[in-house]
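To: structure subgroup
Subject: Chain for Friday's discussion

All,

I'm putting the inputs and outputs inline so they're searchable in the archive.
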Amino acid sequence: MIEEALAQSGEMRAPHDVDRFLAMFLDHYQANIARNSRPYPHVVDEIVRLRSEGARVAVCTNKREALAVRLIGALALTDLFAAIIGRDTLPVSKPDPGHLTGTIARAGGDIRHAVMIGDSGVDVATARAARVPVVGVTFGYSDVPMAELGADATIDSYANLSGVIRHLLMRE
């Protein structure tokens, strides 16, 4: 991320500068991790609904595990997840399918009954590589519209996520 920001600004820096900038960013991010972060509307209700129906819900993120755990804890959401897997939890990270399949396994799930919810092209590519249906959210990080990335379904809100998931799983 730091290297990309420097490249976008036209600056070239020595590797030790990049490492220093990254350390500064991580210190700031960790100290302020939940300052402006809130769950998306309806997402907690939908997770609770899915769990009440027997689903295991997990986080598969390219954020470092300690930061993901810290953020989810600061938002008081830890108990909603069967597993929280970061980019450094397993030997691979997204878009490698092993990151998603490893997350499913750690959550005690079954890949044949799994669905990924993602907000980027990397998420769609990961799900495709793992042969897992994917729901793309239209309000995420993707520069390319989610509908163009080939998700099995897209949503503009988490309001009916559980219904979309049920529909995708019934197609199989």
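Points worth raising on Friday:
The mean pLDDT is 94.
The longest helix spans residues 15-31.

D.
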